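Dear Dr. L.,

I hope this message finds you well. Following up on our conversation about the binding site, I have prepared a predicted three-dimensional model of the protein together with pyridoxal-5'-phosphate. For your records, I am including the exact sequence and ligand specification that went into the calculation, followed by the structure tokens. Please feel free to forward this to your student if that is useful.
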Amino acid sequence: MAIEPIPVADIQVPQEFARLRDLAYNLWWSWTPEARLLFSNIDAYLWGRYRNPVELLINIEPHHWDRLLNGGGNFMSQYRKVIRDFDRYMNPDEPTWFQQQYPEYKGDKIAYFSTEFGLHESLGIYCGGLGVLSGDHAKAASDLGIPFVGVGVLYRKGYFHQAIDLDGRQHHIYNNFDFYRLPLRPMHNAAGRDLVVTVDYPDRQVYARVWQLAVGRVQLYLLDTDILENDPGDRPMTSQLYVRGREMRLCQEIMLGIGGVRALQELKIQPAVWHMNEGHSAFQVVERMRAHLAEGMTWKEASEAIRVNTLFTTHTPVPAGNEAFEASLVEKYMRVFTDKMGVDVHQMLDLGKSYPEGGSQPFNLTAVGLRFSHYSNGVSKLHGEVANHMWHHLYPGAKPTDQNIKSVTNGVHITTWLGHDIRTIIEEALGTGWIGHEDDPEFWKGILKIRDKDLWAAHQSQKDRMIRLVRHRLVEQFARHGKGPDSIREMNRMLDPNVLTIGFARRFATYKRAGLIFRDYDRLRQIITNAEHPVQIVFSGKAHPADEPGQDLIRDIVTKAIYSDLKGYIFFVEDYDIRIARHLVQGVDVWMNTPRRPREASGTSGMKAAINGALNFSVSDGWWPEAHNGKNGWIIGSEHHIDNEDEQDYRDSTSLYDILQNQIIPLYYQNRTAGCPCEWVQWMKESMATIIPGFSAARMLQDYTRDAYMPTAQR
Ligand SMILES: *Cc1c(COP(=O)(O)O)cnc(C)c1O
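The resulting structure of the complex is given below.
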């Protein structure tokens, strides 16, 4: 059966509820609990199935409307309240943080380019931490009223869904999104036609359609090459996020960078600031260079003109994350541009050299980003230092300890990640006015006033919800494997809410060392299967399709969870996404992170867990050394660097077992009065009170605005 695209305006909604369409097409609903509840009250089944209001409105049976129209005033008043809140949020006259800080600024927008945006589980155009950070960045820019526009790619097949088979192997299943069933609108040009941008490729042109995605007050523009105008070979260019083939990846990133600049031109947006979030969009400088040269500037003048209003954020010290292409491949694709510009293609290729000296080198997008930005930053203090060590040779005369690359520590969008029960408790103690105080440490000391029992009950309630989701996923997985009814029933009783529960969920990149905790299997078994004080550990995460060692790690953990004597103590939840992340960070007691220091540039999942009262148990890497104060979580291992990786793993795992056994488990199980672990709850409060204000996306956006956006825009 063919699915016919449904034009936006054709979604039928009763006149009385006409504004539901506006709500459905703005992701504001995704971080507003009352709005989610409203959609779920329309049809809980469809909501649970799609978690996407546009699908819900398309698929709803008319009798539901009758029920809501005739069923008393409850739904109607709920509807009116949500619409009122939405209109207030969107009202341009409502004072925002930005208007208050920069009342004189009438200027142009900050354009933020990112290859992934992780906004909600129903919009699978993200892979992991980088995308979720971009999503949180856009949401916080909206909350603060920052003049901001995002540019990205609309992947028809997205990133893969993960299915794990009986042997623990990861299988890759791709989406095939119908964009008309997502909260996206195709942009039209003045003639009422689809807005399409044109980019030169060797011997041909490739076209991309421009879609709009509303994130509160902020718009994202996403490019899609899967249109009839394109040659069949070019249509899949924007099909898969982090596509495996190098040439296709290059084509895609040329489209993001050059097509993205063209899209803003077509939309008559002239950015005051260009923010490249990671190197994937670095080809934007090629198009901007072309435009400046066409205006008559010299190459040097054009480079300087680009630098003065460009920012670059680097997100990883891991080589694989710093994208580089064979120079000959880049040459193949850049010639069409350099020929038109009248410059030697090697002049362009030199821009991607990691080392100023030396002959042919791979074309490194991080190097391009750093060269063309007058402000660049890492994503934690430690990462800033590491990045300067990695890249100092790009700055003439610089030492590795200089701070040519600054740092802005990441943060998370609080209303996206805070669980329902913890939020309710916070609002009882601090009032509903806490939004807008996200960055105020004094205000958050109020957390300490919350009654221990209440906080514990809220946490347990979130933990119950997390456990239900994990069980549900295990049941689904076992049923798919053809297991018998008894095995499936057994899965539905897994996980005990009264047992200390550790979460470990993230991409299965090997530097994150998901297997570290298994290094001394017998010791781990002794600790976690203790009859009185057991521990359960929930794992989740995908490995990139080309990452065999990452997939081996998954196989190893899954087979242990199913077949070893750790069965019932460790679990692997398949298909990690924003939804699983939300439940895990909201429900576990401890959030564990074991990267090989200093390769975790920031990490954000630990922040999401901390704001919900989970305690971080992490290697001193990324954001954690900035947050840890001895009363809000634990540090695994030491900061002392050891060259021998095996020795490092040995020491870190020993430290991990020692702390787990001697500190975490006693703190959790001892000193219980009326079922509530008093001492533990003090640590939870300390964690929330210090990490909510320090690591919110609001704080992050204020830092960017004060240190980078406004100094750049006001030049
Ligand atoms: C927050 C988040 C991440 C980032 O996790 P790290 O532990 O910081 O690497 C990755 N994936 C999803 C779905 C997330 O929500």
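In brief: Residues 527 and 660 are 8 Å apart (CA to CA).

With kind regards,
A. P.
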